[in-house]
Amino acid sequence: MEVVEALLSGDGERKILAARGLCKLTSKQKHKLAERGVVEVLVLMLHGQEYETIEAALLALLSLASGSERNKIHIVKSGVIPVLLKLLQYQNESIFDLAIAALLIVSSCTANKPAIANSGAIQLLVETLNTNSNSITIQTKLDIISTLHNLSTSHQIIPSIVLSGVVVSLFKLIYVYEKSSELVEKAVTLLERIVSSSEIALKETASTEGAIRALVEALEEGSPMCKEHAVGILFLICQSCRERNRGLILREGVMPGLLQLSVDGTWRGKETSRDLLLLLRDCSGGGSRRKQWKNVLLEQAMEQIDADERLGMGLRMVEETIAKLSA
């Protein structure tokens, strides 16, 4: 095949043209190419100094990896990870974005995750996430979070992710960006994945200044999926040390958003919000009549919401309960 010949024995210009041509081939043709030594040639091209050579090689590798677990494994075994990490220091926005995209696509393959984690990529990705640079696009930050999420599905890698400082980095994004944005949704999703698997990460989240307030805001203003994951984190925080964290969560004004979510959230969002409502009740047995009255109101609201949902009346009960609890 002409593409193979040009990549294996052509000069610099022919290699670039062949790498670009590879992206136009069918999936079946790409499978055959990967078995004939082109992956190793493309990885070698990444060591070049010319922008066009590096870009063409990255696009070709992305094309080979797309939809093929076998090619993803082959690419990583060919030594691409250290080269990609080096390219993250390349002074070109397009190359930087393509290198991140390449890490994302190969990280989706289970067999590649240990090699990526052992390469030092996690620390570099987390540091990059909060770089104060306008050159790092929203899409690139999304790709970084998605790469970390891919890696987090391997339980053995969770400790490395936690030690990288990811909790603080994610909260920096949650603080700055609109709670309804896709970026905050992905950040909260990854955060719940991590805190549900690591007690260290959960404790760090609970003790991070402004974290509970940010999660309450995400619960109120985020997308449906963002709200679901935000309430999941708040539930884990409260469950981990109810005596200490119950008051912290209540002081951030969680009740209106929580009651609202118990009616119009996703299925899991509704279930988790109701579980959290139960944890937030004052079960001390003492206290003022006002506290006891609020607990009765809350229990009545939860019972009524279950009944009214069938009739589409849950929202009215939430609004009435919020007004009474705020009085």
UniProtKB/TrEMBL annotation:
Keyword Repeat among record annotations = yes
Entry-linked InterPro entries: ARM-like, ARM-type_fold, Armadillo
Matching entries from PANTHER family are given as: ARM REPEAT SUPERFAMILY PROTEIN
Keyword Repeat part of the UniProt annotation: yes
Cellular component aspect of the GO annotation: nucleus
Q: Which UniProt keywords apply?
A: Repeat
Q: Where do the ARM repeats start and stop?
A: 79-121
Question: What stretches pass through the bilayer?
Answer: none
* Alphabetical GO biological process terms: phloem or xylem histogenesis
Species: Actinidia chinensis var. chinensis
What is the protein name stated in its UniProt record?
U-box domain-containing protein
